[in-house]
Specification:
By secondary structure, this protein is α/β, with parallel strands linked by helices. The protein has eleven helices and 16 strands. It has helices at about 100-105, 135-140, 155-160, 170-200, 215-225, 235-250, 265-270, 295-305, 320-330, 335-340, 345-350, and strands at about 1-10, 15-25, 30-35, 45, 50-55, 55-60, 110-115, 125-130, 145-150, 230-235, 255-260, 275-280, 310, 365-370, 380-385, 390-395. The strands form two sheets. Strands 1, 2, 3, 4, 5, 14, 15 and 16 form an eight-stranded mixed beta sheet that branches. A hairpin with a 5-residue loop joins strand 1 (about 1-10) and strand 2. Helix 9 packs antiparallel against helix 10 (about 335-340). The radius of gyration is 22 Å and the shape is globular. It starts with a strand and ends in an 11-residue tail after the last strand.
């Protein structure tokens, strides 16, 4: 389907603001972005006069469709807290496409999220990026975006310390993580040795003995081979540095989740080019490790040169992602960096920067139309397109799942 969004204030993210601008869409992709573009005959016209047009926003750290709503035990499927090391569990196997949160979040201009396990375990399992459309898991999941959730700090040590099990301290957290990574490395070594033995033996010789499959170390092996990112939950500055120390020891592709005290080590994060998903920005100091929380954190990190993605760490409350970006601007984050923090930066962290995060020819036509500045609390998102199709329209009442 050919579509032209015309006369809007088009924020491209990478090429500035075009006012008035035109976005041409064809077959689910952005065909062209510019001013005064010729519109092919038969193209459906969407008049965005007086409106902002942006890429669909992206939250790189959510739990939508996994910690389901209503928030009751029956829908609490995000923490397999029976063992501190569960790399074999997959968020996709808890993912409920009928979660009512989806409609709420899409109506706020958010089109893609990363969702996955929580931080109750030192290694919690894999999460995945999803587009907020479709009626089945397979329709939602963006293959190849899987990443491993890990956690340091208070959460795992409290869960297992309360059970009188390891880990019960921060040094226990680190030890458990390192032990698991060593076990996965040993598992990979056994397979390598078997492969080398197979190559050395003559044809028809006894088949080399491979180790029995172990889903834990298979999954964690992908992290060691940098086929998956290690996304490590860390609030305090010392936990952030522990995550860096372990990542460097094992050669992991690291992302820091939350980074609440990231401002205290911003220069280190910038020098090592470690991206951070920062937030949520509405947190109270409900844990000791949040005592130094400040709304200035995203701005400090961005000005230091850290790639920042703003996150809400929620399900339906992911709808407030634009407001969180506005709070970051209010407390010192440059506005253009805040726009990147909910578009291109999270796309990059998810490995999707070639498909999402900006309005450019060739990218997926995931687009939001707003009746004011997207970060303003009084602005409403009017229309949302995912892959060039309307999935939400305020005027006509179109909502994901037929208005669920």
């Amino acid at each position: 389907m050919a579509l032209a969004i015309v006369n809007g204030k088009v924020h491209t993210i990478t090429r500035g603001i075009l006012e008035p601008g035109t976005v041409l869409v064809d077959d689910g992709k952005i065909a062209a972005v510019g001013q005064g573009l010729p519109i092919p005959e038969g193209t459906e016209i969407v008049d965005a006069s007086g409106y902002w047009v942006t890429p669909g926003f992206i939250d790189a750290h959510s739990h939508i469709c996994i910690f389901g709503e209503p928030w009751v035990w029956a829908h609490d499927d995000g923490n397999e807290m029976t063992n501190p090391v569960t790399p074999q569990v997959r968020g996709v196997d808890s993912l409920n496409p009928d979660d009512p949160s989806v409609a709420d979040v899409v109506s706020a201009g958010v089109t893609t999220v990363f969702t996955g396990p929580g931080s109750g375990n030192v290694i919690g399992g894999t999460g995945v990026a999803i587009k907020l459309r479709g009626r089945t898991v397979d329709e939602m999941v963006i293959s190849g975006t899987e990443a491993m959730k890990m956690a340091l700090g208070e959460n795992p040590k409290k869960v297992y310390g309360d059970q009188k099990k390891t880990p019960s301290t921060r040094m226990g957290n680190a030890a458990v993580l390192r032990e698991a990574l060593v076990a996965a490395a040993n598992y990979l070594d056994k397979f390598r040795q078997a492969e080398e033995e197979a190559q050395e033996k003559a044809e028809g010789s006894r088949r080399p003995k491979y180790p029995e499959r172990d889903l834990r170390w298979e999954a964690l092996g992908k992290v060691l081979r940098r086929e998956m990112k290690a996304r490590i939950h860390a609030h305090r500055a010392d936990d952030i540095l522990t995550a860096i120390r372990i990542a460097e020891e094992f050669g992991l592709d690291l992302v820091i989740e939350h980074a609440t005290e990231g401002y205290r080590v911003a220069e280190i994060l910038a020098a090592k080019q470690i991206p951070c998903t920062v937030g949520p920005l509405h947190m109270a100091r409900f844990k000791m490790e949040l005592q130094n929380f400040t709304l200035e954190n995203p701005g400090i990190l961005a000005r230091a040169g850290v790639k920042v993605a703003i996150q809400v760490d929620e399900a339906s409350n992911t709808r407030w992602l634009p407001v969180h970006a506005g709070m970051a601007v209010r407390y010192g984050m440059p506005e253009e960096e805040a726009f990147r923090a909910v578009t291109l930066n999270p796309a990059s962290i998810l490995g999707l920067e070639n498909r999402l995060g900006s309005l450019e020819a060739g990218k997926d036509a995931d687009i939001a139309v707003w009746d004011g500045h997207p970060f303003a609390t009084y602005t409403k998102c009017r229309t949302v397109f995912i892959d060039g199709r309307v999935v939400f329209d305020l005027a006509s009442g179109v909502r994901p799942g037929g208005g669920r």
